[in-house]
Specification:
With 551 residues, the chain is of the alpha+beta class. Helices cover 36% and strands 19% of the residues. It has 21 helices and 23 strands. The strands form five sheets. Strands 1, 2, 3, 15, 16, 19 and 20 form a seven-stranded mixed beta sheet that branches. Strands 5, 6, 7, 8, 9 and 10 form a six-stranded antiparallel beta sheet that branches. It has a six-stranded mixed beta sheet with strand order 12-13-14-17-18-23, sandwiched between helices. Helix 7 packs parallel to helix 8, helix 13 crosses helix 18 and helix 18 runs antiparallel to helix 19. The longest helix has 17 residues. It is globular and about 75 Å long. The two termini are 46 Å apart.
Length: 551
């Protein structure tokens, strides 16, 4: 394989120099110039505070407090990263580390779990995105004084060491306790790829890290070697990362001369474009791209390039809506700033950045909650399209800007099977615990099992498996309520089998099992199998398949 074959994109070197979506490129320069009158005024104020203020003040700490507020007044994605946090903040894109395996942000003096790293220790015990971590062992992780350094110090630690996390969850009135054994946190970008059938391959890309393109390219070739002629590319929950990796990925599917993305900023060096070079290995294969409200920045660049060039269908739910480009610059004291330097645009000219008010991000921060409240996750008619921002794809289909990538085929959030019983066993982490006990019981028998289908044939029949789980739950404080259990039957069985598959075969088998009942994956598969996702999409098929952009 020629590792350099796709590096020759037109103007790509300019984009790499520019930086990345999501702020992960580290600049190494600080411009030197004469201070303006306003800058000199600021320096004078700091000198006066240091020399004449009534109390002794650490000016450096004053600056540390002021810097986040300064950058926060610009836009939602410009940010200050203290020196103590810089390495940890970039770890998930640059290597592995030992910890519990969650990404978090501190909001309202509380540690909010925004992502549970697939295959990590937290995921194995049942911690979920949206959980609030209130304690690590005996250390309280709430309150106005909590900071990222405190959280990192208590969550990370030596591999094999235990930390007891106390969690608040919206569906539980009481705190939940989880014993987590710290371990190496996997940082693979393509965490699952497999053949759905003899012709359709599936890949899940969870981030755009330094090696994402090579992982993606290798996975595509492996699937192609197994017979794949069509692909489902799952970007749901992928919050982004390096822009150039998304460009390389899109280039694999596009003929020469197609726009992938372009950027505009105040400075000429920030006005760039990337155009496909025609040397991709998968220009003829049919593809579908899965997105949801967690798909952001680089994910939206890839999805936008595929959609605007009419190269394949985007399926799922509206993406996050982040169209701002950050350049990360390291400061002399090893802290850094991520400063928005440009906006990016999809090939049709769309800016998918959702609206924000400079200096007031309260509405912006609650956008996903508002979408949920308005019913957008469940009803296509609840999505608010900005009819003033209309654009057209290569084949003349209408698409909309100003708020994420709208899917061509809408798939609502699947809540079938959600009952109070299901929520109770999930909150107690009983599915994970039961699955492990089953895997442990049958481990000798399962040692030679290599495929999911073979594993499922060895496991007890569904009725026996469910009965055993209900008995296990009773012993762990959740009464058997068969009316609700029967309503949740398929969901419970699917998740139990997926957890057993993870413990026996690894994380990819876990995703493969869950996907068998995943409505978005099913829709993508149907589109590929019935010819609904060709390179050229017929306009008359748009209405039939609930496509956006048809008025």
């Amino acid at each position: 394989m020629n590792n350099k074959k796709n590096i020759g994109l037109v103007a790509l070197t300019l984009l790499v120099a520019l930086g990345v979506i999501g702020g992960v490129f580290i600049g190494k320069y600080i411009t030197r110039r004469t201070l303006s009158q306003e800058e000199e005024k600021l320096r004078t104020v700091l000198r006066l505070i240091e020399s004449e203020y009534v109390d002794i003040v650490d000016v450096d700490s004053l600056i540390e407090v002021t810097m986040p507020q300064l950058l926060n007044s610009l836009d939602p994605h410009s940010a200050y990263i203290p020196a103590s946090d810089l390495t940890a903040v970039n770890d998930d894109l640059n290597g592995s580390f030992s910890g519990v395996g969650v990404s978090f942000q501190i909001v309202n003096d509380t540690v909010n779990v925004i992502e549970v790293i697939p295959g990590g220790p937290a995921e194995k015990v049942g911690i979920l995105a949206g959980d609030r971590i209130i304690k690590a062992d005996s250390i309280i992780l709430t309150g106005p004084d909590i900071n990222q350094e405190d959280v990192f110090k208590n969550l990370r630690g030596e591999k094999g060491s235990k930390v007891i996390l106390e969690i608040m969850r919206s569906s539980s009135a009481q705190p939940l306790t989880f014993d987590v054994i710290r371990g190496d946190i996997p940082v693979n970008s393509v965490d699952c790829s497999y053949m759905v059938d003899e012709e359709v391959g599936y890949l899940r890309v969870t981030k755009f890290a330094r090696n994402t393109y090579m992982e993606f390219f290798n996975a595509l070739n492996d699937l192609k070697a197994e017979g794949a002629k069509k692909f489902i590319i799952d970007l749901r929950g992928n919050t982004g990362g390096f822009m150039d990796q998304a460009i390389y990925m899109a280039n694999e599917f596009l003929p020469a001369g197609k726009m992938i993305v372009y950027t505009k900023g105040r400075r000429p060096e920030n006005e760039t474009m990337a155009i496909s070079d025609g040397r991709g290995n998968f220009k003829e294969e049919e593809i579908t791209v899965l997105t949801n409200e967690g798909s952001a920045s680089a994910s939206e660049i890839f999805a936008g390039a595929i959609q605007d060039n009419d190269r394949g269908l985007v399926i799922g739910r509206r993406s996050f809506g982040k169209g701002l480009v950050q350049n990360q610059t390291e400061l002399p004291d090893s802290s850094a700033i991520r400063l928005t330097v440009a906006r990016y645009y999809t090939p049709s000219g769309r800016s998918i950045q959702k609206e924000y008010i400079r200096g007031d991000h309260s509405k912006y921060d609650l956008d996903i909650v508002d979408r949920f409240s308005h019913g957008e996750f469940y009803n296509v008619d609840s999505i608010k399209l900005d009819k003033s921002k209309i654009f057209t794809t290569s084949n003349g289909r209408t698409v909309y800007g100003g708020g994420g990538i709208m899917p061509d085929i809408f798939v609502p959030e699947d809540t079938i099977g959600y009952t109070s019983y299901y929520i109770s066993v999930v909150n107690k982490g009983l599915i994970q615990k039961f699955a492990f006990s089953v895997a442990d019981k049958y481990r000798a028998m399962l040692d030679d099992v290599k495929t999911l289908d073979r594993l499922l044939k060895i496991l007890p029949r569904d009725n026996t498996l469910l009965d055993n789980f209900v008995s296990f739950a009773v012993k762990n404080g959740v009464p058997a309520r068969w009316y609700y259990i029967n309503k949740s039957r398929e969901l419970l069985l699917n998740q139990i089998k997926a957890m057993i598959a993870r413990d026996v075969l690894g994380y990819p088998a876990f995703i493969e099992m869950l996907n068998r009942n995943d409505s978005a994956v099913k829709e993508a598969y149907e589109a590929l199998c019935t010819g609904k996702s060709p390179v050229v999409i017929k306009p008359e098929e748009n209405e039939k398949h609930k496509e956006y952009g048809q008025e």
